[in-house]
Amino acid sequence: MTADVQWSLSWIRDVAARVSERKSEFTTLDREIGDADHGENLNRGFTAVVERIDGLEQPPGTIGDVLKLVATTLMSTVGGASGPLYGTAFLRASKAAAVPELDGQAASALISAALEGVSTRGKAVVGEKTMIDAWAPAAAAAAQSAENGEDAAQVFAAAAQAAAQGAEETIELKATKGRASYLGERSVGHKDPGATTTALILESAARTVQ
Amino acid sequence: MTADVQWSLSWIRDVAARVSERKSEFTTLDREIGDADHGENLNRGFTAVVERIDGLEQPPGTIGDVLKLVATTLMSTVGGASGPLYGTAFLRASKAAAVPELDGQAASALISAALEGVSTRGKAVVGEKTMIDAWAPAAAAAAQSAENGEDAAQVFAAAAQAAAQGAEETIELKATKGRASYLGERSVGHKDPGATTTALILESAARTVQ
Amino acid sequence: MKKLINSPESVLAQTVEGFTLAHSDLVEAHTDPVFISRATPTPSGKVALVSGGGSGHEPLHGGFVGDGMLDAAVPGAMFTSPTPDQIEAAIKHADAGAGVLNIVKNYTGDVMNFEMAVELAEADDINVRSVIVNDDVAVEDSTWTAGRRGVAGTVLVEKIAGAAAVRGDDLDAVTTLAQKVVDNVRSMGVALTACTVPHAGEPSFTLAEDEIEIGIGIHGEPGRERIKLRTADEITELLLGPVVEDLGIGNGEKALLFVNGMGGTPASELYIVYRHARKLLEDQGVEVTRSLVGNYVTSLEMQGASITVLRLDEELTTLWDAPVKTAALNW
Amino acid sequence: MKKLINSPESVLAQTVEGFTLAHSDLVEAHTDPVFISRATPTPSGKVALVSGGGSGHEPLHGGFVGDGMLDAAVPGAMFTSPTPDQIEAAIKHADAGAGVLNIVKNYTGDVMNFEMAVELAEADDINVRSVIVNDDVAVEDSTWTAGRRGVAGTVLVEKIAGAAAVRGDDLDAVTTLAQKVVDNVRSMGVALTACTVPHAGEPSFTLAEDEIEIGIGIHGEPGRERIKLRTADEITELLLGPVVEDLGIGNGEKALLFVNGMGGTPASELYIVYRHARKLLEDQGVEVTRSLVGNYVTSLEMQGASITVLRLDEELTTLWDAPVKTAALNW
Ligand SMILES: Nc1ncnc2c1ncn2[C@@H]1O[C@H](COP(=O)(O)OP(=O)(O)O)[C@@H](O)[C@H]1O
Ligand SMILES: Nc1ncnc2c1ncn2[C@@H]1O[C@H](COP(=O)(O)OP(=O)(O)O)[C@@H](O)[C@H]1O
Ligand SMILES: [Mg+2]
Ligand SMILES: [Mg+2]
Ligand SMILES: [Mg+2]
Ligand SMILES: [Mg+2]
């Protein structure tokens, strides 16, 4: 599948399906170092997103239109920290992807814009045990891949792999932003829920575009 | 030991010691069909009784004086159902035992008076799964023993045995008075706490007078 | 057993001390014997109201001492009726010449200890009456047993009788009114978990992860029936049904609906129960014109709730609305 | 998990419905988006107060809507900050021309969602300010983390800012005053048991029979340190120490002492904690002139408590004493 509007809809539907499948895993991660709601939050959000997609009267013209619908829906249904963060990420991404189809450069731009959105909203930097620790390596890997002239599928694949690794590496980190920061040293040894769902979102992008 | 004033003090001290030893047993019985306080209630009462006995400036003149001290102390420290019941029992008993020493007849009169006190105060009859089911057979056995010309030690021994058996037989009864009555059929199969402590009181009387 | 206490023995005294320190504008502690009174004397000529019972049901009764409600409250040991001398002291202290009404929950121990206290107080020439609250419909065959228990409805009796006393009713009238509330109020409760009496150290009963106890008392006594966990709406129906039936309330009547927490249940759950109980009543044509939701008659940390319905007429409504200034009810 | 609910999904809506039905004289429910407002409009010209946050802390915030306190409250999903559109709708509804002050507990999610709502409301030409409550001294290294959390002290900010708004203070003045309360209030809590978020179905953490968690948040987050169970007096010392130290309150000063229950703790235990905290403060020469004891900022059915100290001056005392008429605070 090419990274077109149709793909973006498949991508988001796939994210919704995976979040619904794995929500208790995310909630468990969040119970360990947070407040046990991350899975529930995202599932509520993406369920609403799918409902809105289902209710669309006519197909969206650009990938940006799809991502904007995702952004506004997440903002008005998720709440918590991840609502504004993912909401802003998708909003920025939607602006960067106001096209009917993505090439490698555009795919990389989409991911960088999402990272920028999360950074602006949450003011966290790499190493604070947040979703930034998945978005940042993903954006770097995507940029590298695009620079190498790879296509959107390859860019998403590179990003997904980097995000997964970044998420994995949050286990060793001590949280200094978000709710897990209240635990101090005791946050070490647990995987960050938001970084984990970021990895899911990018993994899903890569898989659906293949 | 003869059933004199000195004995009555030993009796009450022994009751206090036994109640303190077995209080969790009584509280457990009361947890099963009541509100888990009978052991605590009696222990609070008899601890106070012993303190007052220890504080006596001069030895009491009659057994009745000792029992009256027990009665008023229990009334002002026990509360619950057993406070007024045992308080009234000992008050009536004290009137029946206004003598320096008990013979068989007087011992039987003491027990009958206690029974009458419990009946008047609690308005229960035999078979309702209350302390009456220990006091009533005890009074009957004591009367029989006294009629046979037996002495106080033998009268208390007969009463103690009958009370123990009466308490045992409460297991099969369905409660219709007191807190256990709220359980209806579910009260069957459990021994009544008050009947059990009545058996202890009479067993102690018999043992200390031997 | 995990509790914020210093020792089982010190719970009562330290609770009374903390409570009266925190609300020194409203109440005063008395020791030896222990009771709680209004901070200011009972207004001269007003009928005084005294209530009491075992501890562990806080805010009952101390939380209801103050203007417009009780003049004194007598806390016994945990779940244990207070003693006659405690009650007598409270009666004596509360009396302002117009006599005293005791509001007694129907338990063998409470009834007997209050009876003895009344005998003592009468010997002191105080005019004393008692009403026995017995609103718990969970207890069946009541004529053959110790009778229905007094539970959450007690708060409504205390509030309304308190307002009647402030209005200037004499002892006969206040007693009649309190009895009218008793006659028109019914309750039933459910426990999701048992409570642990400090000195017992173990829960009063054990419920499996999927079991609840219907018809629970307020002393951790087991209830009428143990059933599988159901939804809040289903449980609400199980509780409200017997209450409405026993009270015989129906179409065109007005009611106060009171959802009481047993101490360990979040407010959100009480409102979920309230919501459905209200709907059920209104479906039967009963208009809910007054409401009360919260932890008022508790069983330590027990999770659970009770539903109380009081049939209202204009007089009871006016008295319910009358000002009250206590630690737990205030308007 | 045993709860009086119908399903995890329906808890929020049904709680709001039950709450607003039970208190229809004080509050009104709005749906789509969900928020709770006063039953009557914000008096014209009065600065409006809006607060909100995740559900599960009842009576916070809905229980504090009414005369003298909040004009609107925005409940999010369980333990989850509300969304910007909910907050914006509440701000719009509450504004009576004099602007709106948001009272926000310091959590990443709450702060971000309120920030976004303020952007939206400003686009509607409403004058909006926010104060961030961060009274929880359990969070260390605060400059390097998300900062101290907002916990029970929020109630005191809402009450006092509410009274300032009623007094006629303008938006600047109400904001300054709310900030003054924030600057002078500190809290710390303890959990004896964890709570269970309905959709999670399992306790947020597990404590052994003899363990307690010191420095707990109000969202079932684990606390700062897990220790063995101690006596109430010892635990009180562990909580009060950091509060007093961080606040720097001492000899000759006056304070409001607030012992807050986490939802599942009996009132008796709160008063036992209050009793010792008061003694400790007075030993240090701090005069406790105002008190609050009860379940005000809860974590569902969690057993535990928090201690809050607010440094009082004459102005804050007067505003604390000013009339308030809400479901949870009323005088
Ligand atoms: N300041 C921040 N910057 C980036 N990500 C953050 C920040 N704060 C929290 N997060 C992310 O949000 C996740 C938690 O989301 P969620 O549980 O839905 O919200 P909440 O913490 O409000 O309950 C964390 O795992 C972390 O990845
Ligand atoms: N009406 C009654 N007549 C005689 N004994 C009674 C009556 N009611 C209760 N009892 C006795 O009291 C015992 C319970 O005492 P206790 O637990 O101390 O008081 P409470 O029931 O008030 O908690 C019961 O086991 C029973 O033997
Ligand atoms: Mg979370
Ligand atoms: Mg008992
Ligand atoms: Mg008892
Ligand atoms: Mg959350």
Overview of the structural elements:
Chains A, B: This is Dihydroxyacetone kinase subunit DhaL. The complex is a heterotetramer, with 2 copies of chain A (210 residues) and 2 copies of chain C (331 residues). Chain A has helices at residues 5-33, 38-54, 63-77, 82-96, 104-122, 132-147, 152-169, 193-209. With 210 residues, chain A is mostly helical. The longest helix of chain A has 29 residues, at 5-33. In chain C, the strands form 2 sheets. Chain C has a 6-stranded mixed beta sheet, sandwiched between helices. A 6-stranded mixed beta sheet of chain C has the order 9-8-7-12-10-11. In chain C, helix 2 (84-94) packs across helix 3 and helix 6 (232-247) packs across helix 7. The radius of gyration of chain C is 19 Å and the shape is globular. Chains C and D meet through helix 1, helix 6 and helix 7 of C and helix 1, helix 6 and helix 7 of D. Bound molecules: adenosine-5'-diphosphate (2 copies) and magnesium ion (4 copies). One adenosine-5'-diphosphate sits between chains B (30, 34-35, 37-38, 41, 80-82, 85, 118, 122-124, 130-132, 177-179, 192-195) and C (80-81, 108-109).
